[in-house]
Design a protein that fits this description.
The structure holds two protein chains of two kinds. By secondary structure, chain A is mainly beta. Chain A contains three helices and 29 strands. In chain A, the strands form three sheets. Chain A has a 24-stranded antiparallel β-barrel. A two-stranded antiparallel ribbon of chain A has the order 6-7. About 1% of the residues of chain A have low confidence. Chain B starts with a helix and ends in a 5-residue tail after the last helix. In chain B, α3 packs parallel to α6. In chain B, β3, α3 and β4 form a beta-alpha-beta unit. Classes of the chains: A mainly beta, B alpha/beta. At the A-B interface, α1, β1, β2, β3 and β15 of A face α1, α4, α5, β7 and α6 of B.
Chain lengths: 549, 167
């Protein structure tokens, strides 16, 4: 049956391919396959893989003809690779979990089937997919977008969220409006002060079948937002409020939730500054009360810390604590012009970033009830109260400089404080204080032949101690090879001072890439766009193929 | 497994399909003003580079630095317009404007906050580059960035202007 299905799809696709020349529409898509063969390695505590070989793959097929478009995504996890959400093998299998069709006219658009959507900053609603994390909370239902007049953007949707190969129990309903006042009010058209107002309301319904508590079945969350732009200044702020929503996340307390996000920036050529703050209280919002981890989230509360890319600067990553946190961030970007003392011949680019996150204050509702007791209103607090407990702090400096025609350099220093108990759910009274240094050098032998060396070191007395990492990467047109070693030389247990050797080769041709690597992968946390997943250690051969067509 | 092989074959086979149109999707400029990508890629019959990047993507930044160094020369010779679409999400989207200005980049930068355009154009991971000819059709696409890739980009721009076939 499956074979038949795929043959039919293939015939369908080929016919569309030939139809393209006749202007019968357009067919596009992409493919990615990740394959790993796992080798046993007890030294790094790599979990054993009974299948030995695991695969994550997907392919999107999109068709559009004029105002009509449609598409689907095939996904295959045989079986799901280590480190992706797969409790009880819930993610294993193959199928077409995502398919949609849409119609777009001049001022409205209708989508039926699966879709992704974001209202404002996502404090009330954001559905998205992030293959690197195994996240896909797409809504399956109906969405209508309507643009009645210039500057007014309205959206409405109803749907159920994807839960691996199934749907979550709750129904999600939402509306959103965004009003660009300069486009609406004629007199403001050419004003250099630009104003955008927006608001959204999202509600979820889930039947109350709890034997102990009487739970609200309809839960609403609303948000208002404003964006002001004046010359180089930009302020973007959103506040959201959610009625009481007892759930596994908040230990079934009957307390409302709030979140506030403010980001202000100023920039002009050669200079930029960012200031932001965030306050969150009890704002986890899922379409199923008992869902956990990354499952069935309706909203997203963005982190207010820098998203690091170098392996050791990202070794202790931050993740938003939806039950309550306050955070702030400041960052300055500056470009020292060429032919100045600091700028040198080619200019020097510098950025300094600081962020800090703390808990919020929570007061018991009375003398006999502990904070957060299930079935009560949990605790009381005042808006924007900041607690004493430090969750995370990151100070980092980055310098980019070019030395002569062929040598480029990046230097980075980071100091971070990481509350291990809060962020990893342990109880060791541990705050990791780490210093990280990175040097990244690229030397060009010819314009298309280059060698890159990346050297990183992490120093800490806590957790697993010091790490060093060196990577060499050599590229010629279309090809690269790399070799890397990540060494936990400072581990307090001499038997655990492990080398994580890794080597790989990659080939790119146009929009297709193939990459093969072999070696050890250390355990860690991978974060993309503010969501993280724990990746276990592994050893083996890894192959990835991707293509866009 | 057979299904997978079949998919790979289809993918490779269809990879030769080029000349695709840009979908009608709204992205935003750095002040939050919506703009339709179909209108943005209009460039009076001259080529357009449309590239996807993010503030947290090192190879993307290298690619854009290389484009910035060549931008005025390329513009003089080919009239090219560069549109760099950031896929930064809520966490880092506020960084985009000060970041871009801090780098003194001269080309146009837009944001695609929930990856709607990225998805519609089947982009896997950034950096991902499209080159459009004067009619707004995609004539070349490229995944990833390695040192010197900009030379190839420049060759393609020159071919478009000279009316020569690509590849």
């Amino acid at each position: 049956m499956k074979h038949f299905l795929f043959t039919s799809i293939a015939i369908f696709l080929f016919s569309i391919y030939y139809a393209q020349d006749q202007n019968w529409g357009q067919f596009t898509g992409n493919f990615q396959g990740d394959f790993q063969y796992y080798v046993q390695d007890s030294l790094i505590d790599a979990p054993s893989v009974p299948e030995r070989f695991l695969m994550n793959s997907f392919a999107n097929f999109n068709y559009s003809a004029g105002k009509f478009s449609a598409g689907f995504r095939y996904e295959g996890y045989l079986n799901t690779m280590l480190g992706f959400p797969n409790a009880g093998n819930i993610n294993d299998g193959v199928g077409i979990p995502y398919r949609w069709a849409g119609f777009a006219a001049d001022n409205f658009e209708i989508t039926v089937g699966s879709f992704y959507e974001q209202f404002g900053n996502g404090l009330t609603l954001r559905t998205y997919e992030q293959k690197l994390l195994g996240i896909d909370n797409a809504l399956d239902g109906i969405r209508i977008k309507f643009n009645p007049t210039s500057g007014i953007y309205l959206k409405g949707l109803v749907g159920k969220q994807r839960y691996y190969w199934e749907k979550g129990a709750g129904i999600v309903r939402g509306i959103d409006g965004e009003f660009h006042l300069n486009d609406i009010i004629n007199k403001w058209k050419d004003n250099s002060l630009r104003l955008i107002l927006g608001g959204s309301f999202v509600s979820k319904y889930q039947k109350d079948d709890n034997p102990i508590y009487v739970l609200p079945e309809n839960i609403g969350a609303g948000a208002g937002r404003i964006a002001i732009n004046y010359k180089g200044f930009n302020i973007n702020s959103e506040y959201s409020y959610k009625i009481n929503d007892p759930s596994a996340d908040n230990n079934y307390i009957y307390k409302s939730g709030q979140a506030l996000l403010i980001n202000a920036t100023y920039s002009q050529k050669g200079f930029g500054v960012l200031l932001g703050t965030k306050w969150v209280d009890n704002m986890s919002f899922r379409s199923e009360r008992d869902a956990g981890l990354t499952d069935l989230s309706i909203n997203q509360l963005p982190e207010i810390t820098r998203n690091h890319v170098y392996s050791l600067t990202a070794y202790y990553p931050y993740a938003t604590q939806p039950t309550g946190e306050w955070g702030m961030q400041a960052e300055v970007f500056y470009n020292f012009k060429r032919k100045t003392p600091i700028g040198g011949k080619y200019g020097t680019n510098v950025s300094v970033n600081y962020s800090r996150v703390q808990g919020i204050t929570k007061t018991p509702i009375n003398d006999t009830t502990p904070i957060g007791l299930a079935g009560t209103s949990g605790y009381t607090n005042t808006f924007f109260s900041i607690g004493d407990s430090l969750y995370f702090q990151d100070i980092n400096l980055e310098i980019n400089k070019r030395w002569g025609k062929n040598l480029k350099m990046l230097l980075m220093y980071q100091n971070l404080k990481y509350n291990y108990d809060i962020l990893r759910g342990t109880n060791e009274k541990l705050i990791v204080n780490a210093h990280v240094a990175v040097i990244d050098l690229t030397y060009k032998f010819k314009s298309t032949i280059a060698l890159r060396g990346e050297f990183q070191a992490l120093f800490t007395d806590e957790d697993k101690g010091d790490w060093a990492l060196a990577t060499l990467e050599f590229n010629i047109p279309k090809w690269f090879i790399n070799i890397s070693d990540n060494w936990n030389y400072g581990n307090s247990n001499p038997d655990k001072r492990v080398h994580y050797f890794n080597t790989g080769v990659g080939y790119t041709s146009g929009a297709s890439r193939i990459q093969l690597s072999y070696g050890r992968q250390r355990e860690g946390i991978t974060c993309v766009g503010g969501v993280c997943r724990a990746v276990p250690a592994s050893n083996g051969v890894f192959l990835t193929i991707s293509s866009t067509f | 497994m057979r299904n997978i092989i079949l998919l790979v074959v289809i993918t490779i086979f269809c990879n030769s399909i080029l000349g695709q149109d840009i979908p009608s999707i709204q992205i935003k400029d750095l002040t939050g003003k919506p703009a339709n990508i179909q209108e943005l890629v209009q460039n009076d019959g001259k080529p357009v580079i449309l590239t996807f990047w993010a503030t947290w993507c090192k190879p993307c930044i290298k690619e854009l630095e290389a484009f910035n160094e060549n931008f005025f020369d390329w513009q003089d010779e080919t009239g090219v317009k560069i549109i760099a679409v950031s896929i930064d999400e809520a966490r880092s989207i506020s960084r985009v404007a000060p970041f871009v200005n801090g780098k003194s980049w001269e080309f146009d930068v837009y944001t695609d906050e929930n990856s709607e355009l990225k998805r519609a154009m089947n982009v896997n991971d950034p950096p991902f580059l499209f080159i459009l000819n004067g009619e707004g059709k995609v004539v070349y696409q490229h995944s990833s960035y390695m040192e010197g890739d900009e030379n190839h980009t420049y060759e393609i721009l020159k071919k478009i202007v000279a009316g020569l076939p690509i590849e």
